[in-house]
Every structure is written in structure tokens, then in C-alpha cells.
Amino acid sequence: MTDFAATRALFDLPPGVAYLDGNSLGPLPRAAVARMERRMREEWGGMLIGGWNKAGWMAQPRSLGDRIGRLIGAEPGHVVLGDTLSIKVFQALAACLAMRPDRRVVLSDLGNFPSDLYMAEGLAGMLGRGHALRTPEPEAVEAAIGEDVAVLMLTEVDYRTGRRHDMARLTRKAHEAGALVVWDLAHSAGALPVDVAGGGADFAVGCTYKFLNGGPGAPAFIYVAPRHADGAVPALSGWLGHRAPFAFEPSYRPGEGIERMRVGTPPVLAMAALEAAMDVWDGVDMEDLRRESLRLGDRFIAGVERACPELVLATPREHERRGSQVSFRHPEGYAVMQALIARGVVGDFRAPDILRFGITPLYVGEAEIDRAVEALAEVMAERLWDRAEYRKRAAVT
Ligand SMILES: Cc1ncc(COP(=O)(O)O)c(C=O)c1O
């Protein structure tokens, strides 16, 4: 059994804060500070350029990729880190479109994160071959899978509502229609058990700064199924994805397998923090995490519905249709969230009316859930949100 009291002690959270925003930015793993200092002083400071070889910086996108791979059910050697998630979406999508040259439709849904849709639009425009992006409602996506679809690109867990797609079912359906599938695991990796290999995903991408706690701006990851690893054409043909980067050949040759999804210099400092974050996962059983996440989520839903009748649940109640966040709707959601944050309960807001709460058992337990319910009840009952200062939108919501 995973000891969640022990994992909680591994995080440095400000005293008095109930942090329910790990679905957006995970908190600081205590060990990251010393790890970062070591990387800076001993490795960067002491080894200078020798750090690439002596400290193994160049190999880290693969070794950390494999540690993430364990959490998402990937075969060893098929995940690599680098860049941002938007870039990884672009790479996966471009590779898929190249593998289905006779088809012109990218199918996604309106619940997908806008950056994924924007990247698809940009890529379609760049290709100039008449590709179209279709975005039905999430519930209608299965019926929209047809023989003209080149690639189905979905985010497994909806960033606003926490609704979870059935990865295995939709992947099977897409494959039956001859399409490829890209799964965005931004709200899945570290949030619940994922099985990209068993689920048949062709490509999967995700970030490491949310449930994985890698820190702000931590690098993204990409998974390529072994059957595509040596066939996928890299659209971003950077030197570190070359078969022999240090041969400095004048022309690009794709690297072996997942190596070709590397682009340029890896973020060495950011990977130090991520390395410390991944150590936390070594003691975690994903089935235990899921059980605890659902139990705490149910407790939060029941508490809020009992105490705050004006908040409307946006997250599915059924366990199998839910990720690891709980969201409620309210027309003044932004102000409500600011009032809550002022009381030490941190969640976030997504337009137009969603209050999001991340349920992260690594460092959130019943005490934080109950405190959040209590604070929300007070904010709603006494209309504490109804102040001009709470309506003033910050750049990041
Ligand atoms: C589902 C999803 N996809 C893509 C992104 C964009 O990620 P990045 O800013 O790392 O490119 C996000 C960011 O939150 C996201 O939640």
C-alpha cells in the first residue's frame, strides 16, 4: 500500500495552504532544491561543458522518459522528454498526417485544450493540402470517426470538466476506421493509471509540471508506439534527433526510434527538478493513487453539494468517466475562486465559469478537502466573493 503520509512529507507546501491546484502546477518536491543546487554548483559550475558526458545530461531525456513511461504504461525506450507540450502535439500530429497522406481530416473535440487545436490549425495551414480540423462535442466524437479521418487527437481528461474519455474504446474505433490516434495525457500522467500500450495509442504526449510536479516550465514528453518508432517522419528535424548528431552531417537522417522525436538542446536545469519529482513516484502504486483520488473526489463533491447549492457540478459522477479533478460552475466563478484563495484554499478558474480543484493524494488528504468545503461554504453563504478586487482578472487565471 502506498503511504500517502510519507509522500506528503516529501513536498514543501506553504503552511496554512490547502493546495488543490496540482492539476495546473504541482508543488515543490523538497529534494528538488538540493538537486537543483547540485546541478548548478557541482555539475554546471564544476564540470562546465564536461557535464554533458560526466553528469549524463544528454542521456536524461531518455532515462526520465522511461520513468514517466512506467506511469503511463509505455514500453521501455519509447518515451522521450523535451520542448513544451504544444511542440510535442505538433510533432505527433505531423507524423500521423504523413502516415495517412490520402486523408484530410484531423478529428478532435471541443473539450480539447485550445493549444492542441491551434497547433492542428497551424499545421494544416502550413501543409496547404486542404486538411480540416473537426471539433464536435466530446460526447459526439465517437460517432464522428469516419473513413476520412487521418488522425483522432484527443486529450484524455478534459481540462475544464475533468471528464475522461475511454482511451481503449475510442482508439479501437479509430483504428477500425483506418485512422491513427494521438492522446494528450496532460491531465492523466500522474493523475490516474494510464495504459498507452494496452490501449493501443499510436502517439501520446503530456506535460510534467502538473500532476508529475516537475516545476513551472518543466519539459514535455512524447510516446511513440514501437510499431511506428522507426517509421515516423519527424517534422521538426533538429540536430539532436539526427541519427549521428555529432557527425555534423549537412543533411538530416532521422535518429533511431524515439531519438528522432528529440529536437534541440535539452533543458538541463529543469530536468534536475523533474528528476527529484520523479523520485517521489518510485514509492507510489497508481491503483492506490486512483482509489484515494476517487475517494477524496467523492468526499469533496458530497461536501460542496451539501453546503453550496448554487454551485453546479461540471465533473461526471461516475468514477470511470472522471479524471483527478473536480469542477463546479458558477457565473461569478472567477471572483469566488479569488475569495477562496484569499482564505488559503488554492484552486483555479477556467473561462467562462469553471472553478477547478485538483485532487492529488500525494499531498492532499481529508483535512484539505474538508477545509476547502468549509471555506467554499463560507464564501458562498456570506457572498464574500462579491467584491470589486476579486473580479479584477489577473493575466493568469
Ligand atoms: C491538455 C493540454 N494540452 C496542451 C497544453 C499546452 O502545454 P504547453 O504550454 O506546455 O505547451 C496544456 C497546458 O496546460 C494542456 O492542459
Describe this structure in words.
The structure is a single chain. The chain is globular and about 70 Å long. The model has no long low-confidence stretch (mean pLDDT 98). The strands form four sheets. Strands 4-10-9-8-7-5-6 form a seven-stranded mixed beta sheet, with helices on both faces. It contains 13 helices and 15 strands. It has helices at residues 4-8, 30-47, 51-54, 60-72, 85-99, 114-127, 167-176, 196-199, 268-281, 286-307, 333-342, 366-381, 388-391; strands at 11-12, 18-19, 28-29, 79-81, 105-107, 132-134, 149-155, 180-184, 203-206, 221-224, 312-313, 325-329, 345-346, 348-350, 354-358. Strand 8 (180-184), helix 8 and strand 9 form a beta-alpha-beta unit. The protein has 397 residues and is α/β, with parallel strands linked by helices. It is 38% helix and 13% strand. Pyridoxal-5'-phosphate binds next to helix 5 and helix 6. Residues 84-86, 113, 115-116, 155, 159, 184, 186, 207, 220 line the site of pyridoxal-5'-phosphate.
Keywords, separated by commas or semicolons:
397 residues; alpha/beta; seven-stranded mixed sheet; four-stranded antiparallel sheet; 15 strands; binds pyridoxal-5'-phosphate
What is the compact description of this entry?
With 397 residues, this protein is α/β, with parallel strands linked by helices. Helices cover 38% and strands 13% of the residues.
**Helical coverage, percent range:** 25-40%
Beta content comes to: 5-15%
Rough shape? globular
Q: How are strands sequenced across the largest beta sheet?
A: 4-10-9-8-7-5-6
Bound molecules: pyridoxal-5'-phosphate
Number of H- or I-type helical stretches = 13
Distance between the termini: 36 Å
Query: Structural class, judged by helices and strands?
Result: alpha/beta
Order of helices and strands: HEEEHHHEHEHEEHEHEEHHEEHEEEHH
> Biggest sheet, in brief?
7 strands, mixed
Count of beta strands: 15
* Overall residue-averaged pLDDT value: 98
Question: What value does the Rg take, in angstroms?
Answer: 21 Å
